[in-house]
Design goal:
heterodimer; A: 294 residues; alpha/beta; Rossmann fold; 2 domains; seven-stranded mixed β-sheet; globular; B: 387 residues; alpha+beta; Dna Ligase, domain 1; D-amino Acid Aminotransferase, Chain A, domain 1; four-stranded antiparallel β-sheet; 12 helices; 33% helix; 25% strand
């Protein structure tokens, strides 16, 4: 199958009357995603490109039975939009917005009810190829298959997926978890979900400098809580200490968050770490050809 | 945004956290004036963001209006550098504060813990040196405690931390009160980091913030106009300023010390490009992420910004065409580069993704080297930088 997102997902777009929101609402609909409408406070009752617009997520949800929301609202209002969706009973919230104040995210994450899945912020969204796409990813590079993918980056993900697709390797679900320091869904969450997904046979994990999310993923694998083969890639091997490399969360602070520590954490477990993105399709083929580890 | 020590101490003082009395000076005359008004054993400290000012001679002592001249003269205008940043930073201001009679130096900070998604307090009875060094030599001397923002800070948390960190029992209540004020300040200022190192115990038993390291979240600055006035004093990289003026974010341009200029779309892809250049034996001159859906104008600005760096000998542009088609990217690049001052012979472009063949054909027509893989592009760019 897939994780988090499938053909039953019904999607609301928060900020649908904005330029980005409407553009991507149309792109998602063209991909085949069930986009039921959107929310812009004060513009309820209108419709844009045949999408009904609601004032509140609560109204939108009761009218459309939406399960999922995607957020394109500006940074100062994005944390509020996340909690509005959670309050309305939306189970999957994808926040695309980049530049949300970190204190807003500290508070929003602490207030998020259990059972609500937040992806992002500052992420490209997710796609279960052939089923549904909720995000800003170029849909045509993905192909349906059995490899799960999770990444802190956007473009690099598209590039790697493009190579997988050309090599005839399809994907079950691809998730961009986001480049901010505080994000809702981390690598370990996605690995647990991929473990339960019968269709997924292998996971490509694309990490980068900053934080310890990759090390936590390696620890999960070491504990035996993820048993499928993994291929990793870590960006930022050459990044200097103390500089934010594009993503707010991509920073080496002192000796923490270095690419080397992350590479080592995976290598120690025998998880292959690609030196360059171009090696990934071959590494995926070789781990899939090996007998299961347990 | 990082604050200079004197700005951080002003912020602390406003929050009720004890700091030594002091004043900031930008000229020797101002320094003399400060010491004339308050002749007392004092410390003259270079106000720079770079680490290692003490080793570089940026901290000196004085006690009156006469003997402040020499240290003030020496430190103002001093270029302070370290191993990570050999270019260093020129000292534009000094902070003159009364010397503390210190009995013990400890450590206290609050920052964002990514793993728990909460604020985290880090404390140690050992301070005055890099906390990483303490963590390395004496890991059991450091106490780390996350705080759930929904329950907030209570004084017992501070007392427990102080006790577990091995601080003298006589300062428990003082410590707990300072930590409470620091916790409130963390939220009210939108800080990423508040660090007091050393947190001094004076001989008469008072806790004082002897240094202040503060980093404010750039994304929260819109809500904190009070920091606007302090912005001009932070590190000024003219190329970064140009990138911001061209519409890019603060993190999209990072100046580095090598000679291969790098431009790409998407932070992860640009990081991978830097890594590929480094793996080919080259040294990146910068990180520049033009972001998603870059238009021809932005591509031109990006090339102009990167090539304005006198160290740059070649430029590697690495673009993935996702929603945008490769032939359109190529046409945009050609339009951006035609008539530019930069020689096309020193430019390598790797274009991949949608309509990549058509895109490469357009580039070849205009005499721009287009390569197929990142590794190939990195090698070529490194070779061009060496010739």
């Amino acid at each position: 199958m897939s994780i988090y997102l499938d053909t039953n997902s019904v999607v609301l777009v928060q900020g649908i009357t904005g330029r980005e929101g409407l553009y991507h609402a149309n792109r998602m609909r063209a991909y085949g995603t069930k986009v039921a409408g959107g929310v812009t406070p004060g513009k309820g009752g209108q419709s844009v490109d045949d999408f009904p617009v609601f004032d509140t997520v609560r109204e939108a949800k009761s009218a459309t039975r939406a399960t999922t929301s995607i957020i394109f609202v500006p940074p100062p209002f994005a944390a509020d939009a996340i909690l509005e969706s959670a309050d309305a009973g939306i189970g999957l919230i994808v926040c695309i917005t980049e530049g949300i104040p970190i204190h807003d995210m500290l508070k929003a994450v602490a207030a998020l009810p259990k059972g609500v899945r937040l992806i992002g912020p500052n992420c490209p969204g997710l796609v279960s190829p052939g089923q549904s796409l909720v995000g800003i990813m170029p849909g045509h590079v993905f192909s349906s298959g059995e490899v799960g993918m999770v990444s802190r980056s956007g473009t690099l993900t598209y590039e790697i997926v493009d190579q997988l697709t050309r090599a005839g390797i399809g994907q079950s679900t691809c998730i961009g978890i986001g480049g901010d320091p505080i994000i809702g869904t981390v690598f370990t969450d996605t690995l647990r979900a991929f473990e339960r997904d019968e269709r997924t046979t292998c996971v490509v994990l694309v990490g980068e400098i900053g934080g310890s999310d990759e090390e936590d993923a390696a620890a999960l694998i070491a504990r035996g809580e993820f048993s499928k083969p993994v291929v990793a890639f870590i960006g930022g091997r050459s990044a200097p200490e103390g500089k934010r490399m594009g993503h707010a969360g991509a920073i080496v602070s002192g000796s923490s968050g270095t690419a080397q520590a992350k590479v080592d954490a995976f290598m120690k477990l025998g998880v292959p770490v690609a030196e360059s993105p171009a090696q990934i399709p071959d590494l995926v083929r070789s781990v899939l050809a090996q007998p299961a580890r347990r | 945004m990082r604050l200079l020590e004197y700005q951080g101490k002003e912020l602390f003082a406003r929050a009720g956290i004890p700091v030594p009395p002091g004043r900031v000076a930008a000229t020797v005359d101002e320094a003399v004036e400060i010491m004339r008004a308050n002749p007392a054993p004092s410390v003259v400290k270079a106000q720079v963001l770079i680490g290692g000012r003490g080793k570089a001679g940026g901290i000196k002592f004085c006690s009156n209006a006469d003997d402040v001249r020499e240290p003030a003269q020496a430190i103002l205008g001093m270029r302070i550098a370290n191993a990570q940043n050999p270019d260093g930073e020129v000292t534009k201001r000094i902070w003159i504060e009364q010397r503390l009679d210190i009995a013990k130096e400890m450590y206290l900070s609050i920052t964002v813990d990514r793993a728990s998604k909460r604020p985290i307090v880090i404390a140690s009875a050992i301070g005055g040196m890099d906390i990483e060094e303490v963590a390395h030599k004496n890991p059991e001397a450091i106490v780390k405690q996350t705080i759930d923002p929904s329950t907030g800070y209570w004084p017992y948390i501070g007392r427990r931390i102080a006790k577990e960190a091995g601080m003298p029992p006589a300062v428990l209540s003082q410590f707990s009160s300072i930590l409470g004020k620091l916790y409130d300040l963390f939220f009210s200022s939108g800080a990423m980091l508040l660090e007091i190192n050393p947190l001094a115990i004076t001989k008469d038993g008072k806790l004082v913030a002897s240094d202040a390291k503060v980093e404010i979240d750039d994304n929260g600055l819109g809500r904190h106009p009070e920091f606007e006035a302090w912005k001009t004093t932070v590190e000024d990289d003219p190329l970064k300023a140009r990138a911001v003026a061209a519409g890019l974010g603060e993190n999209n341009y990072v100046g580095l010390s090598g000679n291969v200029g790098i431009i790409g779309n998407g932070a992860g892809l640009v990081m991978a490009t830097l890594d590929a250049v480094t793996a080919s034996g080259g040294t990146p001159a910068n990180f520049l992420d033009v972001g998603g859906g870059a238009k021809a104008d932005l591509m031109r600005d990006a090339v102009n910004i990167v090539t304005a760096n006198p160290n740059v000998r070649s430029v590697f542009i690495n673009i993935f065409g996702g929603i945008t088609r490769g032939d359109e990217v190529a046409k945009g690049l050609v339009a951006a580069l035609d008539g530019g001052a930069w020689s096309k012979d020193k430019l390598v472009i790797r274009l991949t993704g949608t309509n990549e063949r058509e895109g490469r054909a357009v580039l070849h027509e205009h005499g721009i080297a287009a390569v197929e893989t990142m590794a190939e592009g990195a090698k070529l760019a490194v070779a061009l930088a060496g010739t």
